Amino acid sequence: MVQEQASAKPGQKQPGIWKTSFVALSQCWANVVVVAVSLIGLALWQWAAPFSGQVYVIFVFGLVISGYFALSLFVWLQNGHAGVFAFREIDRSRVRLFSGRYLALQLLDTLPSSLGLFVLTGHFLLSPEDMAKVSNLSAIGITSIITFLVLWIVLVFFATLLPAALAGDGSGVGRAIARGRKTVWYVTGRILLGPLLMMFLGSMIVNLVQTAGGEPLISSEGTLVLNTTSVITMVVSSLQYVIVAAMIVVIVSRAYQRGEKRLTEEKNIAENQSLAYE
């Protein structure tokens, strides 16, 4: 990756995922603004004009927003292009392949938990009001475990399909699984020290804000409430999302590099051994 290689001099280790993630966000600041404003806008829309089935519409918009943000970060890491329309610098066929794979991976990650929710609650997705209901807490807990387990599998064994699409290396699912086997502990460790730690810190901040503010996020009627506490919560949640997304992109990009390097080294060793026997 161009930016990854440029950030590490020969003989030196690459910067940590936290540093690299914040550098990526600073370079792609325009994309961060677009995504953060979009997320806050969706939250305000959900408060101002709720309607039946809105959660599914927001889910689709969320897929588009997250896909655009991931694409922007991968483009910067691989090619050094930044900006709202930086993806235009990449071959369109690669962008289409990336988009198709991203959609497939998101559905793969979401489908098991959605099916679990449907079995337990009768809904594929829950609105904030439904999530606040005591009767749904056990279902949310069970499906959250399923979500994290499936997400781990996707990140370890399939996510490198995304940088591979932009690199145009022609590799498929089999190669991605092979890369995952070589980097499973690297990805797992970085996820624990990066995204999960950031999510924990973000949750702590939100809880402190809610405790200090003393204002409810959801009214007694089960509707979202717009107040200082809810606005701060939306802002913190949006910032947490962009940071976690950047960390995941950095981890996947490096897993792709490491996996390809180790597979190539193994191939070269095997070829040298076969030549030695001849």
Polypeptide structure, described:
This protein is mostly helical and 278 residues long. Helices cover 77% and strands 0% of the residues. It has eleven helices and no strands. It has helices at 2-7, 17-27, 29-48, 54-79, 92-121, 128-131, 137-157, 161-167, 173-193, 195-213, 228-277. α4 (54-79) crosses α11, α5 packs antiparallel against α7 (137-157) and α7 (137-157) packs across α9. The longest helix has 50 residues, at 228-277. It is globular, with a radius of gyration of 21 Å. The model has no long low-confidence stretch (mean pLDDT 85).
Question: What sequence of helices (H) and strands (E) makes up the elements?
Answer: HHHHHHHHHHH
**What is the residue-mean pLDDT, rounded to a whole number?**
85
| Number of helical stretches of at least 4 residues | 11
Class derived from helix and strand content: mainly alpha
Largest sheet: none
Uncertain spans: none
Strand content: under 5%
What is the number of strand segments? 0
What is the share of helical residues? over 70%
Q: How are the SSEs ordered, and which strands pair?
A:
Layout (H helix, E strand, L loop, with lengths): L1 H6 L9 H11 L1 H20 L5 H26 L12 H30 L6 H4 L5 H21 L3 H7 L5 H21 L1 H19 L14 H50 L1
Helix pairs in contact: 2-3, 2-11, 3-4, 3-11, 4-11, 5-7, 5-8, 7-9, 9-10, 9-11, 10-11
